[in-house]
Amino acid sequence: MKTARFFIITFILIPFVNSNAQNDTSKTKVLVITLKDNTEYVCVIESNESKFLNILTLEKNKIRILKDDIREVVSYEDSDFLRRQNAASKKAAEKIDTTLINYSDENLNRLIIFPTARALKPWHGYVQLNELLFPFAAIGIGNFLTLGGGISLLPGAERQIYYFSPKVTALHSENLDAAAGIFYMSQTKADKLDLNQGLGIIYTMTTLGDTEKNLSFGLGWGFSGENYSQKPIIILGGDLKVGRNFKLLSETWTPVGANFTLVMLGFRVIGKHITGDAAILTPLNKNAKGGSFAPWFSLTYNFGN
């Protein structure tokens, strides 16, 4: 049996040895020699003796192999070693590419809390969880209408808070959008939804800029039932992309005639479908003295992109 294997291996090696004899080193046939203990050598043959094979590995190591220990000899191009190497290289490349992906922000239609003037793309939308207790969902219809709403998840409460927020983007260009909308909220009752007992804000908003940096400003008029405020709230906010998938966020609400501004500062982490926001909210009076701080965080799943 050993004799038969010896002659088979010798026969296999003949064309490779002849090739080495007829060509210079740069044209030498590269082989993959596998031993019975599964050791693999990527090498070229230097000389072929009766019982031994002298090889030179790609690392320039000279090795003397007993032919009876050889299980398989194949060319490098036809070997499993090359296929495994290619698969590993592809996997490594995919891993590197994933870490280098620059995801686009699918939440350009909102600041930290308040909407911008931008509309969602047609049939694109998101499902969002704010502060764990206030889910919100929105979807784009056409290139101008965004519909959103939700209901609170307050544990143990007899009544929940429901809210909806339609917005119409009347003007849209590459770096300019103008919109108007309403945010309405009220409490549920056991027998009906009481729209007359709710409160909210009617607003106009303008957004300037691109996907990397933009500024939004607008005016909003609060209402409660049938009563409307005479003085507006000034809304100002923006975002700035400072990393591959990282944005800085800011937002302020300033009621005209009041002596304070609600300031929000935070950041956004952007993924392929998931976006996470975290911010700090604090009221500042005219003397620039801050009061208490409150955290704000939201997690958003974007669909349609």
In short:
The protein is mainly beta. It is about 15% helix and about 50% strand.
Task: Tell me what you see in this structure.
About 15% of the residues lie in helices and about 50% in strands. It has 2 domains: about 1-100, SH3 type barrels, CATH 2.30.30; about 125-305, Porin (Beta Barrel), CATH 2.40.160.40. Strand 3 and strand 4 (about 60-65) form a beta hairpin. With about 300 residues, the protein is mainly beta. The strands form 2 sheets. Strands 6, 7, 8, 9, 10, 11, 12, 13, 14, 15, 16, 17, 18 and 19 form a 14-stranded antiparallel beta sheet that branches. It has helices spanning about 1-20, 80-100; strands spanning about 30-35, 40-50, 50-55, 60-65, 70-75, 125-130, 135-140, 145-150, 160-165, 165-170, 175-185, 200-210, 215-225, 225-230, 235-245, 245-255, 260-270, 275-285, 295-305. The protein is elongated.
Main sheet properties = 14 strands, antiparallel
Say which CATH homologous superfamily of the largest domain is assigned.
monomeric porin ompg
Low-confidence stretches: 17-27
CATH topology of the largest domain: Porin
Radius of gyration: 34 Å
Basic shape: elongated
Structural class: mainly beta
Provide the CATH architecture of the largest domain: Beta Barrel
Helix segment tally? 2
Say how many strands there are.
19
- Helix and strand element order: HEEEEEHEEEEEEEEEEEEEE
Question: How much is the average pLDDT?
Answer: 86
Could you tell me how far the N terminus lies from the C terminus, measured between alpha carbons in angstroms? Answer: 64 Å
The CATH class designation of the largest domain is Mainly Beta
Strand composition percent: over 45%
Count of separate structural domains: 2
Percent helix range? 10-25%
